[in-house]
Amino acid sequence: MFENFTRAMEGRAVILTHLPSFVQPFFSPARPLLSKRQFAHLWGLVLAVAVNLRAAKLVHLSAATPRQGHRTSAGAFLSRSDWDAPALVEQQAMGLLAAMKPKPGEVVHLILDDNRIAKRARKMGYVSKIWDHKQQRFVRGHIALFAAVAFRGVVLPWKVELWKPKGHPGPRYRKLTDMAAAIVKAFAAAAPEGVKVRVLFDAFYLCPQVAGACEGNGFTFFSVAARNRTFTTDGKRGKRRAKGKSIARLMPGLIRHKGRRVRMRRSRGHATLRIASADGHLSRIGRVRMVVSKRPRGPWKKCIAVVTSETGLRPRQVVAIYETRWLIEVLFKELRQDLGLADYQMIAEEGVLHHLHVCCLAHLLLTHRSLDALGAKAKEGHEGRTRASHAAAHEHTPRAPARPHRPRPDRAPCERRAACGTASETPRLPAGGVRTAQFEELPLAFGSVCRSGTSTPVELPTRADPGSADGFDYGQNARPDRSGEGRPDSPESGQLTIRGRAPPKRWSWQCFRCNLTSRRACRSNTSAVTAPCRSIHASAVDLSAAGAYKPHPLRRPSTSPSVFAMADG
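RESULT FIELD:
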């Protein structure tokens, strides 16, 4: 498989002796389509391109696979061997797409773009004078048209075609736009069933051929329109205006009068844009929605117009979808810098095209390994969780020790002990709802229920006493319950409310002595509180007569017998 470094192998990244087992599932679909010798050359070149650290020339690729023969054997396999490279790339790409299990209704992006490769060779096939956008000058080289499939953030090279200039021998001449339209039609037959396809391309491919191919196959397209294209906005009632204008003349007015600022997500933070939209008719294309985008402080010459046939989307969504086209630029960078897309040295155009497909197969191989690694991690995590839950259910492993008991701090004894025989601190106010009286503020009227017996029982007033010293209204001066139930308002109930406060709609019983509800544990270090608080008072009848309970706005009163004993008493 892989051999280690020796002095004789100096300058070589790795040596491949046979096909590794972990990549055999990737190459198994290609085995029936190739002969034994062709299959050995294929996996050798693809793995050599993937692990090679130098230029992807035949002398370096053949050095990584010495058992496959001399570099001339690899050159003959690429230039003169009869094997269907486009079919292999399409098969692998669609296999990876199917492995991700797209669901009906999900969106798959088909991205079209061309890559220009400068070559100085005079006798190399299909070399012509082309415009290099990177160097901004004319050079001699090739134009390769790529079609990539983007799904869930994964980019898969699906189709590669080499453009043949006029005057060269071979098949008939075709424009790049015609080649792009044919690719769109071919993808309609290969796309998974039920998915929604959006085609993304730049301004060069915004033409009737490509737009018609998208519309004819039920696809929608997103593209940048050139500034000199004529756009006619809709007038009243959706009718077109009599005369259209160039997009360059419409941009300033749309941005200034209809524009709004939006924040678009980026890989590192956000970017602020000013966008505006308009529906209308684009020359030679038809009815589209145009979204004009510009940076707030950027020059007007960098303002772009994105057009789409999917007119029901918002302007922000149109811009976000078209930004997905940048994935193919990242694909070009990976193919050229890491996999040697432009390092071919074959003269025949067949050898050049086969080299491009070998680089695409290497990229698909790395993607296949990445997806398998992600799936293995997810599967391992799922199996680990399953084993842990099974062990816990059957007690195969000792459970984690319980949390140590934290002793409660010493509390100062209650000074008055007239309200509660066991409570030792001032209770907190309930979160939300009516404020309740603290037990230190109540008069010494509850000696009959105090365990200490240090105070004298005092009878509660039977009518409202606005001038009472404790500042509370007793009994009939309390406001009635809005819900119509669960709040007794008779003087015998001993109900206390703050004067001038509107009662809440829902109630629960709360003990005035320890200020606890049925939702909390008793602060006197006793059992959980129910209605009434059984741990610190004598009986529910005595408490109801002494007025030790009042409604609290957390819950309606319980229907336990002890609560009704208060009203019956």
